[in-house]
Design goal:
- The chain has about 180 residues and is mainly alpha-helical.
- It has one domain.
- The protein is built from four helices and three strands; from the N terminus they run αββααβα.
- It has a three-stranded antiparallel β-sheet with strand order 1-2-3.
- The protein starts with 16 loop residues before the first helix and ends with a helix.
Amino acid sequence: MARGGNPPAGARGGTGLALWLGLAGIVIVLDQLTKTAILATFAFGDVRPVTDWFNLVRVHNTGAAFSFLAGASGWQRWFFIALGLVVSGFIVWMIRSHPTQKLFCFAVTMIMGGALGNVVDRMLHGYVVDFLQFRFALLEPIFHGGYFPSFNLADSAITLGAVCLILDEILRVRRGR
């Protein structure tokens, strides 16, 4: 079935929209619980080493991925909130349009859950709370000290969704041969 059309009659027996929305809700809740714990136990800028290559930190990101637009004058907060809500509406439409494509629906659900987790932060705080920090020596030429930019569970869900979306497309193309 092509992505552009509706499934044929009788093929709508895929996983229900409520399940996908529930899964997105779980991502949002877990994301917010972890961020609440960080806000309650860490001061801004705190770093707590866990291993030689992993720290728990508290940083605030007013921008997007890799702090894109973090230095803007504040308009980016509302832009990213609106973008997250519009994209989520589009994702709900895509899930409804392709209910039998489980990997695809899982992928976009993870993206939606992560995006909305970060939207909640922007609405409540004006920034996104990031707290996972990894350091790898091989990253030193790219990132100062080898520290990959800090991120959170919402960002992890978005990344998982993107990887699954790529995998879904590779599998779809292979099936089409």
